[in-house]
Amino acid sequence: MAQHMRKGAKEQALTANRLIDGVVVYLKADGTLSESLQDAEVAEGKEAAEALLARATPFVENNEIIEPYLFEVEKADGAIRAVSVRETIRQAGPTVRLDLGKQAELSGVHG
């Protein structure tokens, strides 16, 4: 399983794509998946991150998600924020049309 973060990342979350529709999902502390980064469990430290990644295995084996990986996040003002531009884009959805997907919901633009 890949990891998209810098070495020494302190806080990490787990993401993958749901197989049924390709939507980006995040692993929650209760062991379920969410479409919102704000619901993601944040692992602090290497051991917690490895345990978080291991918890994704049943979802892969049940063909619910594909290619789960850890990425660096930070907590600021009570919210979880992706550190990388890549993950910021992934959580917003496809960038080809701003009237579709999560970007439309966030901006109020609908086609």
In short:
With 111 residues, the chain is an alpha+beta fold.
Q: What count of structural domains?
A: 1
User: Which secondary-structure class do the elements indicate?
Assistant: alpha+beta
Number of strands: 7
Termini separation comes to: 37 Å
User: What is the N-to-C succession of helices and strands?
Assistant: EEEEEHHEEHH
Please tell me what the overall shape is. Answer: globular
Q: Mind telling me the C-alpha Rg?
A: 14 Å
Percent strand equals 25-35%
Which bin fits the share of residues in helices? Answer: 25-40%
Contiguous runs where pLDDT drops below 50 for at least 5 residues: none
The average pLDDT score comes to 87
List the helices and strands and how they pair.
Layout: E1 3-4, E2 11-18, E3 24-27, E4 33-34, E5 43-44, H1 46-54, H2 57-61, E6 65-76, E7 79-82, H3 85-92, H4 101-107
Parallel strand pairs: 1-6
Antiparallel strand pairs: 2-3, 2-5, 2-6, 3-4, 6-7
What does this structure look like?
The protein is of the alpha+beta class and 111 residues long. The chain has one domain. 26% of the residues lie in helices and 31% in strands. It has helices at 46-54, 57-61, 85-92, 101-107, and strands at residues 3-4, 11-18, 24-27, 33-34, 43-44, 65-76, 79-82.
Keyword list:
single chain, about 110 residues, alpha+beta, seven-stranded mixed sheet
